[in-house]
Amino acid sequence: MLSKSIALAAGTLLVAACARDVPAPAAARRGDVVLPVETQVIEALVPRQATLESLLLDHQLPLELVHAMIGSARAVFNPRQLRAERPYRLVLSVDGLLKEFEYRIDADRFLRIVSRDRTAPQQLAAEVLSYDKAIEVVGIRGEINEEHSSLIAAMSASGERVQLAIALAEIFSGQVDFENDLQPGDSFEVLFESSSYQTAPAEMPAGSADAARAPGEFAGYGAIVGARLTNEGKEYRAYRWTNPSTQKAGYYDEHGRSLKRFVLASPLRFTPRVTSGFSRRRLHPVFHTVRAHLGVDYAAAPGTPVVAVASGVVVSAGWAGGGGQQVHLRHASGLESYYLHLSAFASGIRAGARVDQGQLIGRVGSTGTATGPHLDYRLRRNGVFVDPRREHARQPPGEPIPAALLADFHGARTGVEARLAAAVSASVVRAAEH
To answer: Which of 21, 207, 222, 336 has the fewest CB atoms in 10 Å of its CB?
Structure first.
């Protein structure tokens, strides 16, 4: 009897050492039965090449229960979408019966499977829940300088993440080439939505790459409400405005003209560096002869995403001799664009396919006649190749807001300007205090 007592105590200590009684996130506890203390909590990351079935069987759950869990999950979630390195949480009773299972689908949602009836352990309820978040509108100011010479570096110096830099670049992509046009002394001010967790996602092992986030921690960005960008002494403004008739939101300048241009300033984001411009006479770097270079060469790392500069139709996507792997697009108004030396084509990019402006069409490579990885980007208008950078500079302003709605827009613009000024001032004060 004494040996049995010692064994029981040792087993209890082992369970306590290997599993923690961690309460579920508040978002996952609503309406739950309070878990008894005699529970085992297992928290880990999904292993590579695991399926939902193999994951659950690894924890010695009965096969019938595993199949019931998978069947229950299928009503709200495709088990094939289980991804490696995502956190999960399994709560079991001391006799091995399921209490609940949570799997984080993404930063916004999690799958939850619960058993509420101990007498019927295979009668389960599954649902996909959202983490509660709070949204705050905040503002920042950043400056391009010798130390922070790119938009991403300047955004990071202001305390924000690369995703905000990308969103800002997309808004002004019709006006500014953010890699080649930014200069020391340029600056930006941004008013944007920032969300934070109100309830923590399911917890993960300490130190994991996707560690648990506490309530109040950053959860992601929402829309940019307004922005001001100064580039080489010229000021660009952007205001997010929703058309009350169509309920479609877009970005407009201070006069109510759309910032969306027919052609983007560059087919690459941030990484491009012009290594060779448009020229009728250029010394070819491979053949060492003088010949025309009818495009712009951008140096970029292999695999860098290449996007369509305008909406259109794929004329061809294939081998083009010295141009290597090439995509040729046809746009409206007699315009065509070419993207040479690609390492790969994006899914669905083939002759006849329609593409949207900004859509991924391929990735940078060094196929064909090339001395290294780069993108040769070309534009042709009415059958004649033109300088892409000059063509872009000649673009007219975007479509304006209808005159009948301009008063509504101007009222919204005034409000955004006031909020932007106040938010930026507050951020400057906070920075000074720290």
So the answer is: 207
- Up-side HSE of residue 372: CA atoms within 13 Å toward CB? 7
Whether 335 and 413 map to the same domain: the answer is no
Strand partners of residue 326: 318
Rg (CA), the chain: 28
Whether residues 179 and 284 fall in one domain: no
The answer to whether 229 touches 141, Cβ cutoff 8 Å, is no
Same domain membership, residue 180 and residue 254: yes
What mean pLDDT comes out for the span 286-305?
A: 73
**Tokens representing 16?**
């306590």
Count of residues making up the chain: 434
Q: What is the mean predicted confidence (pLDDT) over 387-408? A: 86
* Residue 361 sits in the same domain as residue 327: yes
Percentage above 90 pLDDT, the chain: 50
Quick check: is 374 in a domain?
Answer: yes
Q: What is the mean pLDDT of residues 115-119?
A: 77
pLDDT at position 7? 38
Would residue 324 count as lying in a domain? Answer: yes
Amino acid at 245: S
Q: What pLDDT is attached to residue 348?
A: 95
| Cβ neighbours, 10 Å, residue 16 | 11
Going by C-alpha positions, the residue among 144, 78, 84 that lies closest to residue 111 is: 78
Q: Which of 25-29, 84-88, 165-169, 415-419 has the highest mean pLDDT?
A: 415-419
Is residue 69 included in any domain, yes or no? yes
CA dist., res. 411 & res. 413, Å (int): 5
CATH at residue 12: 3.10.450.350
Spatial neighbors of 71 by CB under 8 A, at least 6 apart, are none
Do 241 and 299 lie in one domain? The reply is no
> pTM score, two decimals?
0.62
Closest CA to 108 of 81, 133, 78: 133
The total of structural domains in the chain comes to 3
